[in-house]
């Protein structure tokens, strides 16, 4: 039996909420969670946003984010109850015995200081090592984490390194004081999929090499399965299931865990291309004003009526620019966009009302895609009024029909966007697009900001609506699991070019080109030992490496 | 409807009293605005509640009529500056390009000249009447409203919902009035309270300098000017308009604060 490092007993956390128009009051956001962590082990905390993952993670440093208080229970670190500790005790503890790796390294580093200064800062403050010893240690960590030129890496400023490297530098910062416990709070979530597995592999390697214990917080079960020894599944501020990683992913006991494990189990039969494509993009080249390089280079793709074309690629590959060029927001410098048998004018301003109506768009961030001062009824009703001249009762009837189609119902008609959940907001955006009776909808990363189960619901809804309304979907995403689930055809983009294009079965069948191979192999799979296999078989370095 | 906070109630009360007396000045004021009814600088008495002014007119009546002039000019000028300033500001933000450049640089040019001096020069060549005063003050102040509304609208214009409206093919007017205006209202309302107060101060300053409201018409700045010599002899007549200006300024701001809180509530500002 290994030694227990962290023992959390019946932890309760409360926060004060300030609802508009009501008196501030306290709500409990974590209801009595208990777990233990042994020395040198990794515990994965997994759950949807709002499940209390980060709050629990931070409580192991006896820290509560703004407005959050630990209201009950005990947190024993090395046998000491740290909740009872004074400010001075906690200062000695944080950054020395427990360290923290935040989700956004870009926001967590001070842009005005060199990386080395920041990486060794806590180590020096706590007197864990002399300056030269700390620097040597940092360089060793940089090497272990696979950072380029470890000797000089620390001389750079945060903006001079890539996102993946910054995240690794932050891991080095956390490991430098040789703590007993590191809290990783979604360290790879903000990274591109191909970069994510490099960072993941580096973190896993570093954890094993230093023998530190870790709490690994994420919403992605496949990611946590690669690094954790145990997994705790959280939902609505309470524990759902706790067990060994193998048991959780191979034999989950609870329904919710089973749902998480089997997410993206959408059945979708690939449709054959029709003779006449709806959208025919030919040799599209585009650049942003004031720049001197093409963001899109000679892109040609086709989308057939009632089908789904998935455009995949990392951030910066030109996926969203393609959407902007098709909608006419960014007029292309060369190429042609054929749509429903006619040629669309490159400028949005020159298009007819029908051109605009038949080509709708759904955005990634549903919050900012809807006017916060309009009700759901006005948001969905406006296209009806604008394109079809519907008014009064007729408009209201149609809005209710659309609300039923997106599985929300009439009671939502007078709500404001702020009164909807993330998934509901995205549904309203779908209804707004449908209201125009479009032939094609561009979906720009529509599920990226959503929790897996909610995203699943949105995808199922889109596919169902596609069947009923016969609308074609241009689906822009970086998530290959989504692509596998819903696409009929796939275009893989890399640095502004389409590197692979065809029907889903063609694109996903080997032999692959190097980039597609890298991209496909980078999608975390829910399988033990997957990470090691992938790292061993890669043909190409990721862009962030 | 939630309870109105005490500060807003106080603000509403005083603002209401001032506007009420301004509107019904003719019914409330005990004497005519230019009638000489007593001696010079008589102290407060039951006959003259605030005493009399430098040539024996009833100070309370002059204060009431003066409030009417001051509040009328300030309100009209504020409305003018907000309508022109915010319309031009929103247009600059939504249209962008050379239209934005032209408007913004033009506004920079006007703002480069101190407002008071600009107004004094314009008023020295124009006939000084109430409509001219309103026009000069409103347009000069519109430059500041333009800056604010353009800055606010530029932030809103890049949001996805504005892009969605443009992709729908909406006209510029719709984008400005339905997408941008409701979201820009809170900062504009807060600014409106502040600008109204600046207008009161502005017209008072102009009148004090003799280029504002012309005698025998009364306004608060003019009353200060007429009675300022009395201060040397210990006559407090000049303080009455000063107190009026201060209380009006504070109470309008209390109201503006409350309105701002209400409109920034997340539910679209209707039931917060």
Features:
heterodimer, A: 545 residues, alpha/beta, Rossmann fold, 2 domains, 6-stranded mixed beta sheet, 23 helices, globular, B: 272 residues, MetI-like fold, 71% helix
CATH domain fold name of the largest domain in chain A: Rossmann fold
Average pLDDT rating of chain B: 85
Strand order of the largest sheet of chain A: 6-7-8-3-9-10
Q: Based on CA inertia axes, which overall geometry of chain B fits?
A: elongated
Structural class assignment of chain B: mainly alpha
Mind explaining what this structure looks like?
The complex is a heterodimer of chains A (545) and B (272). Chain A is an alpha/beta fold. Chain A folds into two domains: 4-261, P-loop containing nucleotide triphosphate hydrolases (Rossmann fold); 279-509, Rossmann fold (3-Layer(aba) Sandwich), CATH 3.40.50. Chain A contains 23 helices and 20 strands. In chain A, strands 6-7-8-3-9-10 form a six-stranded mixed sheet, sandwiched between helices. In chain A, helix 16 packs across helix 17, helix 16 (376-388) runs parallel beside helix 18 and helix 17 (392-405) crosses helix 18 (422-435). The mean pLDDT of chain A is 86. Chain B is mostly helical and 272 residues long. Chain B has one domain: MetI-like (MetI-like fold, Orthogonal Bundle), CATH 1.10.3720.10. Chain B contains ten helices and no strands. Residues 266-272 of chain B have low confidence and may be disordered. The chains are: A alpha/beta (545), B mainly alpha (272). The A-B interface holds A 20-21, 327, 329, 348, 351, 353, 356-357, 360-361, 363, 365, 368-375, 382-383, 386-387, 416, 418-419, 432, 436 and B 2, 159-161, 163-164, 166-170, 178-179, 182-183, 265-269, 271-272.
Topology readout:
The complex is a heterodimer of chains A (545) and B (272).
Chain A: E1 4-17, E2 25-38, E3 42-47, H1 53-59, E4 68-77, E5 80-81, H2 87-93, E6 98-101, H3 105-108, H4 115-119, H5 121-125, H6 131-144, H7 150-153, H8 163-175, E7 181-185, H9 193-210, E8 213-218, H10 221-227, E9 230-235, E10 238-244, H11 245-250, H12 255-261, E11 279-286, E12 296-303, E13 308-312, H13 319-327, E14 334-339, E15 342-343, H14 353-358, E16 359-362, H15 366-369, H16 376-388, H17 392-405, H18 422-435, E17 440-444, H19 452-469, E18 472-477, H20 480-486, E19 489-494, E20 497-503, H21 504-507, H22 514-521, H23 530-537
Parallel strand pairs in A: 3-8, 3-9, 6-7, 7-8, 13-18, 13-19, 16-17, 17-18
Antiparallel strand pairs in A: 1-2, 1-4, 4-5, 9-10, 11-12, 11-14, 14-15, 19-20
Chain B: H1 6-23, H2 25-28, H3 59-95, H4 97-112, H5 115-125, H6 130-157, H7 160-168, H8 172-208, H9 220-227, H10 239-263
């Amino acid at each position: 039996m290994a030694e227990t490092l962290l023992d959390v007993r019946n932890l309760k956390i409360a926060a004060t909420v300030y609802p508009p128009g009501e008196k501030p009051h306290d709500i409990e956001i974590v209801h009595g969670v208990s777990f233990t962590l042994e020395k040198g082990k990794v515990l994965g905390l997994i759950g949807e946003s709002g499940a209390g993952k980060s709050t629990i993670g931070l409580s192991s440093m006896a820290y509560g984010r703004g407005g959050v208080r630990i209201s009950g229970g005990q947190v024993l670190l090395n046998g000491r109850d740290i909740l009872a500790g004074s400010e001075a005790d906690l200062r000695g503890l944080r950054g020395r015995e427990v360290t923290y790796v935040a989700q956004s390294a870009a926001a967590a580093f001070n842009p005005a200081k060199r990386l080395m200064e920041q990486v060794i800062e806590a180590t020096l403050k706590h007197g864990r090592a002399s300056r030269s010893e700390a620097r040597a240690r940092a360089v060793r960590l940089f090497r272990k984490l696979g950072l380029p030129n470890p000797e000089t890496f620390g001389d750079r400023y945060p903006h001079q390194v890539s996102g993946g490297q910054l995240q690794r530098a932050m891991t080095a910062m956390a490991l430098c004081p040789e703590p007993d416990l590191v809290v990783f709070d979604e360290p790879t979530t903000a990274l591109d999929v191909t970069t994510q597995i490099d960072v993941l592999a580096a973190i896993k390697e570093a954890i094993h090499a230093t023998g530190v214990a870790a709490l690994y917080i994420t919403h992605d079960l496949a990611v946590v399965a690669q690094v954790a020894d145990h997994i705790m599944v959280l939902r609505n501020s309470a524990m759902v299931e706790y067990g060994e990683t193998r048991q959780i992913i191979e034999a989950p006991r609870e329904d919710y865990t089973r749902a998480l494990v089997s997410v993206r189990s959408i059945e979708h039969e690939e449709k054959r291309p029709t003779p006449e494509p709806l959208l025919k993009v030919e040799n599209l080249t585009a650049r942003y004003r004031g720049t001197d390089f093409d963001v899109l280079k000679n892109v040609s793709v086709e989308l057939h009526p009632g089908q789904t074309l998935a455009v995949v690629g990392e951030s910066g590959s030109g996926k969203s620019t393609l959407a902007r060029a098709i909608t006419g927001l960014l007029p292309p410098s060369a190429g042609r966009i054929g749509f429903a048998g006619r040629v669309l004018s490159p400028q949005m301003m020159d298009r007819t009302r029908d051109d605009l109506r038949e080509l709708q768009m759904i955005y990634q961030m549903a919050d900012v895609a809807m006017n916060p001062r309009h009700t759901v009824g006005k948001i969905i009703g406006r296209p009806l009024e604008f394109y079809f001249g519907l008014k009064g009762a007729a408009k209201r009837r149609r809005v209710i029909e659309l609300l039923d189609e997106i599985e929300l119902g009439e009671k939502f008609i007078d709500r404001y966007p702020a009164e909807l959940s993330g998934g509901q907001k995205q549904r309203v955006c779908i209804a707004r697009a449908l209201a125009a009776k479009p032939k094609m909808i561009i979906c720009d990363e529509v599920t990226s900001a959503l929790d897996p189960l909610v995203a699943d619901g949105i995808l199922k809804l889109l596919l169902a609506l596609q069947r009923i309304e016969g609308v074609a979907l241009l689906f822009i995403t970086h998530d290959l699991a989504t692509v596998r689930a819903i696409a009929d055809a796939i275009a893989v983009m890399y640095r502004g070019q389409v590197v692979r294009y065809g029907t889903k079965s063609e694109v996903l069948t080997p032999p692959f080109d190097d980039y597609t191979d890298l991209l496909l192999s980078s999608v975390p799979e829910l399988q033990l030992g997957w990470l090691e296999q992938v790292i061993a078989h890669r043909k190409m370095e990721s862009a962030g490496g | 409807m939630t309870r109105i906070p005490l500060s807003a109630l106080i603000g509403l009360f005083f603002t209401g009293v001032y506007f009420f007396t301004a509107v019904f000045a003719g019914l409330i004021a005990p004497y005519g605005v230019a009638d000489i009814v007593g001696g010079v600088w008589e102290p407060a008495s039951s006959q003259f509640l605030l005493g009399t002014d430098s040539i024996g007119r009833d100070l309370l009546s002059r204060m009431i009529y003066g409030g009417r002039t001051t509040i009328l000019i300030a309100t009209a000028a504020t409305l003018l500056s907000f309508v022109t300033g915010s319309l031009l500001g929103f247009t600059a933000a939504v249209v962008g390009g050379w239209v934005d450049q032209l408007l913004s640089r033009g506004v920079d040019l006007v703002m480069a000249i101190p407002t008071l001096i600009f107004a004094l020069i314009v008023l020295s060549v124009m006939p000084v009447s109430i409509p001219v005063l309103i026009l000069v003050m409103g347009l000069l102040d519109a430059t500041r409203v333009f800056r604010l509304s353009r800055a606010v609208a530029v932030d809103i214009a890049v949001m996805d919902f504005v892009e969605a409206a443009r992709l729908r093919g909406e006209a510029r007017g719709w984008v400005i009035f339905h997408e941008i205006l409701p979201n820009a209202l809170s900062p504009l309302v807060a600014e409106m309270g502040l600008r109204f107060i600046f207008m009161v101060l502005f017209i008072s300053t102009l009148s004090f300098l003799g280029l504002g409201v012309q005698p025998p018409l009364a306004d608060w700045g003019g009353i200060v000017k007429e009675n300022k010599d009395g201060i040397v002899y210990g006559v407090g007549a000049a303080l009455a308009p000063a107190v009026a200006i201060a209380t009006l300024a504070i109470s309008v701001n209390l109201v503006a604060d409350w309105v701002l809180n209400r409109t920034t509530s997340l539910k679209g500002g209707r039931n917060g």
